[in-house]
Amino acid sequence: MYECLFLGNHTIALKEVTSTNVFAAELIKNQHALITDGTVVFAENQTNGKGQRGSVWLSQPNENLTFSVVLKPSLLVDEQFLLSKMVALGIFDFLTNRGIKNVAIKWPNDIYVNNKKIAGMLLENILRNSKIEYCIAGIGLNVNQVDFPKDLSHAISLQQITNQPYDLASLLKEVLFFIEKRYMQLKSGKLTVLNQDYLKQMLGYQKENSFIIHQQKVSGKIVGVDKSGRLQVAINQHIQSFDLKTIQFCLEE
User: Fold this and answer.
1) Over the stretch 67-87, which tens digit does the pLDDT of each residue have?
2) Are residues 142 and 224 in the same domain?
3) Roughly how many angstroms between the first and final C-alpha of the chain, as a whole number?
4) Alpha-carbon distance 96 to 175, whole Å?
5) Do the Cβ atoms of 139 and 69 come closer than 8 Å?
6) Shortest CA distance to 223 belongs to which of 93, 107, 92, 101?
7) Residue 34 sits in a domain of what CATH number?
8) Residue 6 falls within a domain, yes or no?
9) Which residue, 62, 98, 120, 151, is most buried by CB atoms nearer than 10 A?
10) How far lies 170's CA from each of 6, 61, 66, 167, 175, in Å?
């Protein structure tokens, strides 16, 4: 039912790897002529997955989806956040198509359900001159895991939400299908749709939220995301832009 045009046509399935992003980067370095747009590296067990802010993506073996998609987007460097929007929206679409409620994109590109994290991604770009030659989109989606460490109490999985297990191979095809649909929007220049949909589905958009800025808790309203991906927050009626290193979003329990 969920057949892609090209995403996943070349899939490298691994039993175990430190990081699918690192493996994909090595492939590009050593065998770049064999890497097609939409190549997927999938691992049953990822022992040292990479997350945002230099963190590690923890995942139980054979219970979740941990994979990387190699894209050849032909975008300018200053357009790179469009890739984050595109992938995040693809995962959002996949979840909502399955009837999952209360799905939101937490800036910059985590996916939350009921204020708990179900998916995260790390996009790493390889540049040539002023263009993005390759984008490695590393994605982790919690699927069948039901026990999480105490320090991951904010995590949630599909099985926890629906009370049913999933076949990872078929689910991967389904996720890729929805990411590809958004990728095709990007390739066809439908940037307004991507930008508007990202804001529409963004957690806390146009609402008062709490943030940690310079170790201080402040209140502000998310009003947008600039072209480079910085979060735009209105604080005391003054709009300021922040990158991932300078602001932390405080979720209400």
Assistant:
1) 999 999 989 999 999 999 999
2) no
3) 38
4) 11
5) yes
6) 107
7) 3.30.930.10
8) no
9) 120
10) 16, 17, 14, 6, 9
Q: Phi/psi at 191 (nearest 5 deg)?
A: -75, -35
The tokens of 178 are what?
């929805």
pTM strictly above 0.85: yes
164 Cβ contact list (under 8 Å, min separation 6): none
Provide the residue range defining the domain that includes 234: 208-250
164, part of any domain: yes
Helix/strand/coil (H/E/C) assignment for every residue in the chain: CCCCCCCCCCEEEEEEECCHHHHHHHHHHHHHHHCCCCEEEEEEEECCEECHHHCEECCCCCCCEEEEEEECCCEEHHHCHHHHHHHHHHHHHHHHHCCCCCEEEECCCEEEECCEEEEEEEEEEEEECCEEEEEEEEEEECCCCCCCCHHHCCECCHHHHHCCCCCHHHHHHHHHHHHHHHHHHHHCCCHHHHHHHHHHCECCECCEEEEEECCEEEEEEEEEECCCCCEEEEECCEEEEECCCCCEEECCC
pLDDT band at 33 (very low <50, low <70, confident <90, very high): confident
Residues 6+ apart with CB under 8 A from 130: 76, 77
Sequence-separated (6 or more) residues with CB below 8 Å from residue 192: none
* Assigned token pair, 18: 């430190």
